[in-house]
């Protein structure tokens, strides 16, 4: 009996399973970093708000605080452009800060600098929950292209769809819990207290949601690479045409 004929031992199966699981976790981690911007994206999300509340705590100057936050957001975008990096996360930060500056300037209330971001968070939480209830989890729509599976998980990969649903519910509930803390504070706390609480809640809920997404997807079936399937189909079609053309030439001769 050759080594190829020998039955696979339980140890070998476990080793392969562990290896496949490790590879799945690594791929999922890389995809999440790409989708959500990684450490740099988190820094770009926190810095403008942190600068705003720091300056406002020191001198209570709404205009200076707002302008400083907007300027640092633009600088972050400029740095990405110079380095030719992906700018979608930095641009989203600029738009968020710009809306906050407009709100605060219009009302004269420094707390309104944070209001657009809070409303966006609430809307995003509802979007995660509603799309999941509708059978199209938002996190799957976000990550599907990153994993090169597009929407194949909806009909061809039920285990993965279930993982996306769990992750979307996690995102929705975590963001709703964040809103449940921030909206009462928006009415009751002063600007300085509210600003520091909001900055403190920027990263931890996000990291928790990303971690749970990683856990759910790492245990899910692997994604179906629809791009590879299309390339394989195109190659097969070329080979069929070449074979047909060769058959025609053989008949002619």
Continuous helix count: 11
Estimated helix fraction? over 70%
Q: Main β-sheet, in a few words?
A: none
Instruction: Count the E strands.
Output: 0
Radius of gyration: 25 Å
- Quaternary state reads single chain
Structural class: mainly alpha
Mean pLDDT: 82
Report the order of strands and helices: HHHHHHHHHHH
What gross morphology would you assign?
A: elongated
Low-confidence stretches: 1-16
State the distance separating the first and last CA atoms. 50 Å
Strand content: under 5%
Write the layout of secondary structure elements.
Layout: H1 10-36, H2 38-59, H3 62-83, H4 88-107, H5 115-133, H6 138-143, H7 152-155, H8 158-188, H9 191-200, H10 203-218, H11 226-252
Helix pairs in contact: 1-2, 1-10, 2-3, 2-4, 2-9, 3-4, 5-8, 8-10
Summary?
The chain has eleven helices and no strands. It is mainly α and about 250 residues long.
Polypeptide structure, described:
By secondary structure, this protein is mainly alpha-helical. Helix content is 81%, strand content 0%. It contains 11 helices and no strands. The chain has helices at 10-36, 38-59, 62-83, 88-107, 115-133, 138-143, 152-155, 158-188, 191-200, 203-218, 226-252. The two termini are 50 Å apart. Mean pLDDT is 82; it is low at 1-16.
């Amino acid at each position: 009996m050759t080594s190829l004929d020998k039955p696979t031992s339980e140890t070998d199966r476990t080793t392969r399973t562990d290896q496949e699981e490790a590879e799945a976790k690594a791929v999922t981690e890389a995809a999440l970093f790409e989708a959500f911007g990684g450490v740099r994206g988190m820094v770009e999300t926190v810095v403008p708000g942190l600068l705003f509340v720091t300056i406002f705590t020191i001198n209570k100057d709404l205009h200076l605080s707002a302008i400083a936050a907007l300027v640092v957001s633009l600088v972050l975008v400029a740095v990405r452009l110079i380095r030719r990096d992906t700018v979608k996360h930095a641009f989203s930060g600029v738009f968020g800060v710009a809306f906050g500056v407009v709100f605060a300037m219009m009302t004269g209330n420094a707390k309104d600098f944070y209001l657009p971001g809070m409303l966006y968070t609430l809307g995003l939480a509802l979007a995660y929950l509603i799309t999941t209830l509708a059978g199209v989890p938002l996190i799957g729509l976000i990550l599907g292209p990153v994993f090169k599976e597009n929407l194949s998980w909806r009909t061809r990969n039920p285990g993965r769809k279930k993982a996306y649903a769990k992750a979307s519910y996690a995102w929705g509930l975590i963001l709703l819990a964040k809103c449940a803390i921030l909206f009462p504070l928006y009415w009751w706390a002063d600007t300085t207290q509210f600003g520091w609480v909001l900055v403190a809640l920027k990263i931890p809920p996000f990291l928790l949601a990303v971690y749970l997404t990683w856990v759910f997807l790492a245990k899910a079936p692997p994604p179906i690479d629809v791009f590879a399937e299309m390339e394989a189909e195109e190659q097969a079609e070329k080979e069929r045409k070449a074979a047909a053309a060769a058959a025609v030439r053989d008949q002619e001769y």
